Amino acid sequence: MLRYLWKSLLLLVFSVVICCIAYPLALWAIGQAAFPFQANGSMLKGPDGAVVGSRLIAQPFTKDEYFQPRPSSPSYDASASASSSLAPSNYALRDRVARVLGPIVQYKGGAKAGKAVAPDVEQWFQKDSFQAKPHIVAQWADLHNSLASAWVGADPKNGAYVDEWAKKKPAVVAQYIKDNPATPKPKAADLAVVFFKDFSNENPGKFPSAVTKKGADGKDQTAIEPVKDGSDVQSIFFDMWRQEHADADLQDIPGDLVTASASGLDPHITLQNAQYQLDRVAGKWAANLKKDPASVRKEIEQIVEQNASAPFNGLAGEKFVNVLELNLELRKLYGKPS
User: Fold this and answer.
1) What's the predicted TM-score (pTM) here?
2) Selection from 117, 45, 67 nearest residue 285 by Cα
3) How open is the CA angle 192-124-97, to the nearest 5 degrees?
4) Rounded to an integer, what distance in angstroms lies between the CA atom of residue 333 and that of residue 337?
5) Could you tell me where the DSSP H helices lie in the chain?
6) Angle 146-148-153 from CA coordinates, rounded to 5°
């Protein structure tokens, strides 16, 4: 009996040593010797030598001086990699795509060819908000309850703004509770639709949006205020504008500019996507550096072409660009954005 136990113990020790120590150690040694960059996470460094991220994982870029990656369902959180799993019939998917398109899409043909649609969305929003009954913001909230509630929860300032409104409107809140007895203590998100309807009635042609101003201490302070234009109006109401202007001839948009990858962390964009963003990036750098826009555009276009590559050394598929590597090249060439 002891002989069998001894053999089993030896087998256990041998398995642990091989599988848990020797094998991982051998792989680590080979990786560090032959593939140190890949084995350590493919980390990239900035001009100052500090690590700025991995070339394998997308990260957000919000400044106009930089190329931007694909949308990300997990908000570029590598620990929460996931797709949106939204079906084509789900309005949330249409809304997400429309919000990306609103501020950037341009007319394709006609007298306005090459011009941005955003100003027309703002003009339509302001005009129709005064004429429509109920107002367009109220219509939006009534048609898309979940989007209105999502706006409240998207930022703590939004929720605080609705809470402050609720304190000033006890009669409106009381009526909501009467109409919804199952919610005796409604939270800000529960009151979203009611809030937007009341807001629309008091602020026709405007939408509650974050506005940054200089405070008395000279520092930037952000607060929610009624606005009649800006990125929120352009993005949130683009879809409603598009439905009323179905005959408008708009430019085609690269698919990966508005759709997320399966992981939500794809670090690459197509060359077509990069070229679509080129005018914005070059225009912003030219303004910052006070250089000729045409020459700056040519420089950045060359950088894009140099960083573009197709799978299997060009043998298959279309060309892609790593967004982080591309933006690092811009940083090396032009420095830090102002």
Assistant:
1) 0.77
2) 67
3) 60
4) 11
5) 2-16, 23-34, 36-39, 91-101, 118-131, 136-143, 145-154, 156-168, 170-179, 192-202, 231-236, 238-244, 255-258, 271-289, 293-307, 311-314, 323-334
6) 90
User: 111-126 pLDDT, tens per residue?
Assistant: 888 899 999 999 999 8
Residue 259, classed as helix, strand or coil, is coil
Q: What are the tokens at 225?
A: 């205020």
List, as own/partner pairs, every contact residues 47-55 make where C-beta atoms lie below 8 angstroms and the sequence separation is at least 24, other chains included. 47/328, 47/331, 47/332, 52/324, 52/328, 53/324, 54/267, 54/324, 55/267, 55/322, 55/324, 55/325
Q: How far is it, in rounded angstroms, from Cα 68 to Cα 239?
A: 22
End-to-end Cα spacing for the chain: 78
Residue tagged 């609720």 (tokens): 166
φ and ψ at residue 144, rounded to 5 degrees: -130, 75
Determine the Cα–Cα distance for residues 196 and 176; give it in Å rounded to an integer. Answer: 13
- pLDDT at residue 129, as a whole number: 56
pLDDT at 133: 57
The two tokens of residue 151 are: 């706006």
User: Which pair of tokens denotes residue 206?
Assistant: 């405007």
- Cα dist. 328→42, 71, 207, 332 in Å? 15, 20, 37, 6
How far is 22 from 100, CA to CA, in rounded Å? 51
